[in-house]
Amino acid sequence: MTPQPQADRFPCPGCSADMQFDPATGGMKCPFCGKTQALAAPPAAGRAVMISSHPLDAFVNQQAAPQLRPLSAAALEVSCGACGSAVTFQPPEVAGLCPFCGDTLVAQPKAADPLLAPDAVLPAFIPKDKAQASLRAWLQSRWFAPNALKRLARPDAVEGVYLPFWDFDADTTTHYSGRRGQNYDETETYPETDSEGRTVMQTRQVPHTKWYPASGVVSCRCQDVLVPASNSVAESKLNALQPWKLDSLRLYDPAFLAGFKAQRYQLDLSAGFEHATQTMRRNIERAIRRDIGGDVQAIDSMETQYFNTQFRHLLLPVWIGAYRFQNKVYQVVVNASTGEVKGERPYSLVKIVVPIAAVVLLFVIYTLVGLLLLSQK
Questions:
Q1: For residue 54, which of 316, 252, 309 has the smallest C-alpha distance?
Q2: pLDDT of residue 365
Q3: Structural domain containing residue 57
């Protein structure tokens, strides 16, 4: 069971200011006097021992009382009026800008609503300066991007945010029916006209597939099926940030959020599992094709049972920047555990048209000069 947070503030033993989590050291650091303080070291045992999981059925069927509480007793939450994202932060951190759309958070913060308690957090390993260096390298490779994108290179343009994920494990048994295909070639004779206009007969090998019925049962163990529980960042972008360093997960402690923002899950547990079954289905289909064998396979039907289904509520770290261009929001996200950068940007019509126009103009000038020189000869 995840322990209750024990503290809401993390006073510096040197100057009593509020300390923040420091990705560079993995401990707490005072932003004013620079004093550091270590957090409890993770146990040497593996992840399965460190992080507890919960039976999905018991929670979905309300047989188990959910552990509902805010991310910390001092956590404040504010909703963005532009994109609707709920942003959680812990004083003395302030609301500031929405990390998901770049709009100013003007709503009055309120005490954070309780939620299904996080089981684990993946601490940020990439400090902000290194994330910005990766971001600047990404920006420099974006040809024809508008100048508005360059604002993301500013130190205040990216924020550290912990995003919610559901992490599912399940055993599956699937009954299937399908077909196994065996490839073979047949020799085919066909007429062809040669260089002298004569019709000659040629042969060629034509591939064919012979199909045989197949059916059976396969069992799969699906582990660490991650489902983003945030609607504020595109799932495709978050999936592209994988892999995450899940072997470095730590038991949830609000200290990791000091100096960062967080987001509550927007996809509930039941919907999260439905989404996870899509990923599991792809793994099961690969197992079925291996079981069918042959050269090619066709799956006609499959019925899957899920059991021993467990889940964890995880918080995973990103550095994220957002800006608006022509009334559309663009985001760039850095995986704060690996440094991987994924983003989107518009194309600047001016930056595309002007160089092309310059080339055309130079060509016209060169042509006219050439014609003028020819006319003088």
A1: 309
A2: 65
A3: 20-167+222-266+310-346
